[in-house]
Specification:
The chain is an alpha/beta fold. The protein folds into two domains: about 1-115 and about 300-335, Nucleotidyltransferase, domain 5 (2-Layer Sandwich), CATH 3.30.420; about 125-295, Nucleotidyltransferase, domain 5. Helices cover about 45% and strands about 20% of the residues. It contains eleven helices and ten strands. Strand 4, helix 3 and strand 5 form a beta-alpha-beta unit. Helix 5 runs antiparallel to helix 8 (about 235-260) and helix 6 packs across helix 8 (about 235-260). The model has no long low-confidence stretch (mean pLDDT about 95). The structure holds 5'-O-[(R)-(carboxyoxy)(hydroxy)phosphoryl]adenosine and zinc ion (ZN). 5'-O-[(R)-(carboxyoxy)(hydroxy)phosphoryl]adenosine binds next to helix 5 and helix 6.
């Protein structure tokens, strides 16, 4: 079964072709970073217009690299939420058009399910596992018992971890996207130089909160710029590294707590922030002490991509699920609203 997956949920226009839910024939991503860079974040109106321009060439390129024609496709899978409404609409209506004209089954995909299943593009963790999806829009923990069987264990109550990276990067003048900028700046910094707060919420909670941390960094930077902060030799790198460590401390603690609560399974970490090497190193250290298997997709499958949507589509279409021309987008689309498969 060969599926074309399309994702236009945020600022990347992406299309991928995947065979059998696992074998990636192509994965093409057209980034909009340069367009949004001067604004320090994604501008929704610009993003949707750019998707309109880029989507057709990106899909053509994905089919061409995969060496398949439309007639070879057994399904088209497209993200319908969560995400930016204008951006999602471009992907959904393009996919509907393709599916209708070429008479190909269509699957409406939840972006978060795509991130959870992205690991299957190159590995095969045994069910059940705990998944931490950590990106610019989401920070959530799931107990994954099978394809389409997800129980949310925790989520962010305010900012997503990637959003905090992006905002702190802007505060520090390190640019957009913030995750890699903070990670790079941190390499020259001391991660225990500034004691930024860690929001564990309570000893039991698997929810996250990163907005207080972002405010703490912002207040510190104001004082620091006015030379009122303690330690006049603090550098931008020290602030970046101390912030990054505060986020990672919380992510590591909570994913391990979730694992324990779920009865000690393996762990899958996905989404853009899963590219962070310090996060991987810290998780690796903890995992080796506790003898836990941790799976990460390669960076190209951590950030938004069409291949992961094709994988989710493979499982949904295989179960008989179909979307029709009445399918609509959902800016908010909690994973618990998904039918199980
Ligand atoms: O999954 P993704 O591509 O899009 C969303 O669904 O949000 O994730 C993008 C997010 C951005 O906030 C970006 O700053 C963050 O992932 N990110 C990182 C790193 N690379 C990307 N955060 C921390 N460290 C990184 N190396
Ligand atoms: Zn994403």
């Amino acid at each position: 079964m060969i599926i074309l997956g399309i994702d236009t949920s945020c600022d990347d226009t992406s299309a991928g072709v995947v065979e059998g839910g696992r074998h990636v024939l192509s994965n093409v991503v057209q980034s909009q970073v340069k367009l949004h860079h001067p604004h320090g974040g994604v501008v929704p109106e610009l993003a949707s217009r750019e998707h309109l321009k880029n989507l057709m060439p990106v899909v053509r390129e994905a089919l061409s690299r995969a060496k398949v024609r439309m007639a070879d496709l057994n399904g088209i899978a497209v993200t319908v939420g969560p995400g930016l409404v204008g951006s999602l609409l471009v992907g959904l209506y393009y996919a509907k058009g393709l599916a209708y004209v070429h008479d190909i089954p269509l699957a409406a995909i939840n972006h978060l399910e795509g991130h959870i299943l992205s690991i299957f593009l190159e590995d095969a963790p045994p069910f059940p596992f705990v998944a931490l999806t950590v990106s610019g829009g989401h920070t959530s923990l799931y107990h994954v018992k099978g394809y389409g069987q997800y129980t949310q264990m925790g989520q962010t109550l305010d900012d997503a971890a990637g959003e905090a990276f992006d905002k702190v990067s802007r505060i520090l003048g390190l640019g957009y996207p913030g995750g890699s900028a903070i990670e790079n700046a941190s390499l020259d910094g001391l991660n225990d130089r500034i004691k930024f707060p860690r929001a564990y919420l309570s000893s039991e909670s698997l929810d996250f909160s990163f907005s207080g941390l972002k405010t703490a960094v912002s207040l510190f930077v104001k004082k620091w710029r006015n030379n009122q902060a303690e330690g006049d030799d603090v550098t931008v790198s020290d602030i970046a590294a101390s912030f990054q460590e505060a986020v990672i401390d919380v992510l590591v603690r909570k994913v391990m707590m979730a694992r324990e609560k779920a009865g000690g399974s393996s762990i899958v970490v996905a989404g853009g922030v899963a590219c962070n090497k310090r996060l991987r190193a810290r998780l690796g250290e903890t995992a080796s002490v506790e003898d836990v298997e941790i799976y990460y997709p390669r960076p190209a499958y951590c950030t938004d991509n069409g291949a992961m949507i094709a994988t989710a589509g493979y499982h949904r279409l295989s179960s008989g699920e179909r979307a029709d021309l009445s399918a609509d987008v959902r800016s908010k689309f909690p994973i618990q609203d998904l039918p199980s498969i």
